[in-house]
Structures are given as C-alpha cells and as structure tokens.
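Listing S7. Sequence submitted for prediction.
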Amino acid sequence: MQERGERAERREQTALRIVEAAGIVIDREGYAGASIPEIQRVAGVSRGGVYHHFESKKAVGDAVLQRQHDFFARVAQDSAGTPPSHWCQALIDVSYQYTDGILNDPVLRAAVRLSIEPGPYLTRDSYRAPLEAVAAILTAARDAGELQDHADPQDVARTLVGCYSGVQLLALALEERDQLHAQVAAMWRLVMPGLARPTVLARLRLDPPDS
C-alpha cells in the first residue's frame, strides 16, 4: 500500500511539474506559440510522460486555466464565511491578492494570458469563476448597505472584471507588469467612489497593503 501511495504521489508531482512548465511556456509564448516539446523540455519529462497525464495541448491548457478557477472558487467560498468589517475592502484586498499571484505564479499568469488572448480560451467559461466570485462579494456588500443604490452586483461584476482584464492586457502589451499594483490602485481610485457609499469609501484602503 505504501509503494502504491508513493507511485500515486510521484504521478501527481509529475503532472504538477508539467502544469508549472506549461505556465512558464504559455506566459512567455502565448497558447498558440506554446508547443508540447518545449513544455516537456522545461518540465524535464519525456513526450510519453506528458501524454500519460495530458492527452493534448488543450488538456494542458485546461489544467493551467484551472489554477485561476481554483483561486476564485476559494474567494467565493470565503465570501460565504465570516463577514469582514467591509465587503468593499474585501473586494479590494482580493484584487491585490490576485495581483500578487499573477506576479509570483507563472501558471496564474499563463491562465490570465489564456483568457485575454484570441484563441480557444477567450470564452464565457474562462470568465465564469471570476465573475461569480466578484458578484458574490458585491452581493454581500449590497446586503450590508455598502453600495450606492444604482450599483447592481451582476452589472458591477462585469465592469470590474472587464476593467481588471484591460489593466492586465495593457500591462502585458507595454511590458509593465512590475507596475501592476500601481495600475490596480489607479483603477480603484477611479471606480470605488462611484460604487461605495461615501461613509464606506472614507474607511477603505484603496492602495496595496504594503504601500
């Protein structure tokens, strides 16, 4: 039983290594430019090793995008837990946590690139998890009386996810990802005054936590 468990653990580690390698390659080359031979080279596994775990490049891409879905699934789960002092602040903090993930995790960066570049992942499903997570926080904020009367959680979620995606796309195009935190802060300074009630806005920290 122990030997069987060790084999299963090795398989999981190999699959994770392939996904991490795919993140590096897709982040650098985009989905169209990423090749299985390059992914296997970066992962240090054989071609057969890749196809043992993933039947196609699309399957590898699906695993990369799952990293993004998992992040926002945790966000949605947290929104059902103990209420924070302000839901609007929780939303701002999530954006900076996500930005940290993008800057430090090549798989999460690759997932973002998959969802913003023309190709098989520029679909409604790629945005389902972030839209649902942001809408869940905004719904909680509305129920807590934090939002202005005109702010509909579903509509605002689409606007915020679109704005953040645009910030990402521009940072990628201009090769300015090192400025991403500052660009997200600028987004919040523009958007949050039209979203939160003035009494709530006065209590919010719009800049990154470490600033």
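Caption to Listing S7: primary sequence and predicted structure tokens for the chain studied. The two ends are 51 Å apart (CA to CA). The CA atoms of residues 185 and 207 lie 5 Å apart.
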